Amino acid sequence: CAVLCCARHSFRHTHKSRIMAALCSRRVGTISNARRVLRRQLQQRGGGVVISSSSAKPSLPPTDVSPIDDMVTKWERKEPASTPPPPNALPPKATFGAVLKASQMKANMKTDTLFVLGIAAGALIGFGALLMNNVGGSSPALMAANPGACNFLKGAVGLPTGLFMVVMTGAELFTGNVMVMLSGLLAKTVQTADLVRNWVVSYAGNLVGSLLLACIATVGQVPTAAITKVAATKAALPFTVCVAKGLMCNWLVCLAVWGAMASNTVAGKAAAIFLPISAFIALGLEHSVANMFLLPCGKMMGADVTWKQIFANNILPVTIGNVLGAAVFVAGIHYFAYGRE
Question: pTM value?
Answer without folding.
Answer: 0.76
